[in-house]
Amino acid sequence: MDEVLKIENLQTHFFTGEGVSRAVDGISLSVKRKKTLGLVGESGCGKSVTALSILRLVPAPPGRIVAGRITLSGEEILSLSDVQMRSVRGKSASMIFQEPMTSLNPVFTIGTQVAEAVRLHTDVDRGNASEMAIEYLSKVGIPAPRQRASQYPHQLSGGMKQRVMIAMALCLKPDLLIADEPTTALDVTIQAGILRLIKEMQEETGTALLLITHDLAIVAEMADEVAVMYAGKIVEMGPCTSVFSSFVHPYTEGLFKSLPGRVGRGFKLYTITGAVPSAFAFPLGCRFHTRCPLAIQKCREEEPALMAIAEGHACACWVRAGGPA
Questions:
Q1: Ordered strands of the 36-40 beta sheet
Q2: Could you tell me where in the chain the CATH 3.40.50.300 domains are found?
């Protein structure tokens, strides 16, 4: 099957004493074999909750997937039991978490933790699993990997821990790799090596990549398609070349105009006014209208759906995609 991941109308809400937080509120997307989908947007728009929903790692309570379908390599995963999901995580789908500081177990060595991922999902014995762990620690740029494998997480820097998490995610060559800000703690040289390693793995094994990042330069380099997320919804989606060269939604435009390289030295950086609205109380109509310079009355009253504007390129905007009423 060419489509590794398919999400249809996913809704993940958090039920708290303050009310219901609609963190992910009806998104649909897909990622094909050997392809990369970049998921971008400001902090708080629902990107990481989307990733956790795919692996059913949303903390419950208070979180719950209330609607939608998630299909991984043809298998509907929302209907799987917790035991069945354990066999999916790590083997069929792996995730590079955003917080390496809290994602590693402090009482086990680095090598033990990477090797454990191998042994849980394969018939490889302890010795060969340990050698595989050392091999992948070397591949992600950790110096003296055999020595580092015997160390504990507190003995490593934040960047080293991030590389350990990447090694753990890559060593089983999953069908789907979810990378949530995978290179945030890494310097430019190591970052380039990691991205190259991921690309090589995709070519070798056909792994599909869901790349969650704020770095549009990484998206431009890595992604085949890009989805722009805002306030729990996807507001623009399409081929990376199309969205980057002909972005339509005012929010997407704001993200690009905010890039430091777009203004000269000494000029004030562009910022999108306001902030992402609270998921407890999204505004009526288009959720971006309170910050949008192009908003018309229809934007304040009716929520736009994604509308096709070119082949494979869709946008949810009454003004630019649907035309003013």
A1: 93-96, 176-180, 208-212, 36-40, 225-230, 233-239, 313-315, 307-310
A2: 3-223
Q: Among 220, 182, 6, 4, which residue's Cα sits nearest to residue 93?
A: 4
DSSP type of residue 202: H
Helix (H) or strand (E) holding 144: none
Query: The pTM is what?
Result: 0.90
b/e sequence 245-281, b meaning 16+ C-beta within 10 Å? eebbbbbbbbbeeeeeeeeeeeeeeeebeeebbebee
Is the CATH code 3.40.50.300 the one for domain 3-223? yes
* Three-class SS state of 277: coil
Q: What is the mean pLDDT of each run of 10 residues along the chain (325 residues)?
A: 90 96 96 96 92 93 95 92 88 82 86 89 88 91 92 88 86 89 78 85 90 90 96 96 94 90 74 91 95 95 94 94 60
- The two tokens of residue 103 are 């994602």
Rounded Cα–Cα distance for residues 124 and 130 (Å): 10
